[in-house]
Design goal:
Elements: H1 10-27, H2 31-49, H3 52-61, H4 67-73, E1 80-83, E2 88-90, E3 98-100, H5 105-115, E4 121-124, E5 129-130, E6 133-137, H6 139-149, E7 155-158, H7 165-179, E8 184-189, H8 193-202, E9 207-212, H9 231-252
Parallel strand pairs: 1-4, 1-8, 4-7, 8-9
Antiparallel strand pairs: 2-3, 5-6
Length: 256
Amino acid sequence: MRFFAPLAEPIGALWSLMVLGVLWLIWRRQWRSAVWLGVPATLIFLIGSTPLAEQLVASEERPWANGMEKAKLSDAPADAVVALGGGARVSQHDVLGFAMDDGASRNLTAIQLVRWGKAKTLVLGGSWPMPDRPNVPSMGVVQDWVTSWGLAAGTVTNLGVCINTHDEAIAFRTLAQDRGWLRVVLVTSALHMRRSVAVFKKQGIDIVPVAADFQVQGVSQDLQFSLFPRQHRLFLMTLYLHEKIGWWVYRARGWV
C-alpha cells in the first residue's frame, strides 16, 4: 500500500494520467503531441520522484545549521530579537484568533531566544493587514497572545504592515534608529536566511542570524526513489525556486 500511496496525492494521480496519455499518443503514432506531453511529465518525475528537491534545499540550509547553538553559547546579549513575518494567519474561528502556519517556528525560536536572555525586546515581523482593518497588522494578534501569556519577559512589538522582506528591513531600521539599537538577532526560515541577511545588511543593520523552520537539513527525510512523484517534493522545489527568483529580483532592484 505504501508503494501506491502517492497516487492519493493530486500530483501523483495527475502524473499517472499524463504517462498514460503519452503512451496512448505513442500508440497512435502522434509523436509531436507525445513529446509535448512527455516533457512536463518528465520534469514532474525528476522533481517529485528523485531526491533532487531535498538536495537543493539542503544546500541552501546547510550554512545556517548551527545558528541556534552559537546563540546559546554566546555571552554577548543583543538589543533585540526580530522574527521575520510568517507562520501565522488570522482565523476568526480559532480560539487564539490565529492559526499556526508554515514558518511558525520563526516566532517560537525568537521567543525562546528572549527567554534565554539573548535580548530584552522581541520584535515580531511585518504582516498583511487585518481583513477588516487595513491599517492594523495581522501579526498584532500573535503579539497579544505572546504578551498575555508572558512568553517573552520584556517588550514585545511588531514591524507593522509589510508586504515583503525589504519592507520589514526598512521598518526595522527605523525602529532600531529610534531606539538606539546596534546589534540584533535575526530569525527566519533557513531557506530564507541568505536573502534576509543581505537585505538587512544593505540597510546597515548589524545582525546575528539564527535560522529556524528547517525543511531538510537535520530533518528526518525519506530520500528514496519513488516511482510516483510526491507532493512534498514539489512543495520543496516551490520554496527553493521562490528564494532563488526572489534573490535575483531583489538584486535587480538594488535591495541586496
